[in-house]
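seq as requested:
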Amino acid sequence: MCAFYQGGSPSNYTIGGARFWFNRLVDDTVTPNTYEGFRDMGNVVDSSSEQAIEELDHFSAKTGTRRKDRSLVTEISEEIVFTLDELSTENLRSFFRGDAVTSVVGRPASASAWQATTAYVVGDYVEPTTPDGNVYKCTVAGTSGASEPTWNTTEGATTSDATVTWTAYAIQQVTDEVVQLIDTEVRVLGNSYNGESIVVKDITGVTTYVKDTDYSEVDIIGGYKGIKAIAGGGITSGDFVRVSYDYETRDNKLFYPATKLEVIGQALFFGVSDTGNEFMRSFAKAQLEPEGSFSLDDADWSNFQLRLKVLDNSDAVPTAPFGLFRHFGVGQDI
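struct tokens:
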């Protein structure tokens, strides 16, 4: 006789949301292994777990007839696909298999000339009264001295100026970008965000063309610059020209795609809601990979997928080869 017990509850039906954290392995040749630290990968829009188990059937002939008496598990694997909607640097780095992330300080293409006995605040930029190819960012606020300091022109070096401290940043420049001008079509300059000091020469670099006579500068959407030949000027349709200019950069983080082809680490997956079941899945060893393509959509362009391959960790924790699953019940805060 069997007894049946009802254990369902409407409060268990809904999982309100989920988040994903990943701790990238840096060095597994040292003890203890070193990791970057758990990074919040953001909101999980959707996820699916794919567990594959392969079995080998065992047969016995005790009774004279060959009969299956057992199925032996020969292979176990688990993979989880996450759909994320947060276009963070870490998510992009994971999708495009990038390695180290570098923070880049933005800098203008030019700045106002330095002035004596003037109050400056952090973030102000100046150029020396005799330009030296650098801009100098105020990194300690104060009042400049009565006479101009001797500037330390080394990238990232500081200059003391009475109570002000300046940090040197080279003006970003493009030299001899080759462009073909066709009739009066606009040609966008590749790194010309807020571009300044544009110089256009013929392909030999001998003749310097005159702005508003031979060519004109055109403002392109997003702050970028373009040039186009002026009919009747010195540039013939089809000519190649050399263009040099200074340009502005914004604060940004950069990495090089396809330089970290194997990303191993630890992962945490939280399922959280106020009224539904709440749980945490931890993975002591897992491999993170891009899933599918990275596509842009004007309505929902930031959704993309990552695949987490759960790896065997039985050498370190024999009792938990594929991590842990913790169920916190209803209404608990994680």
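The first strand starts at residue 17 and ends at 27.
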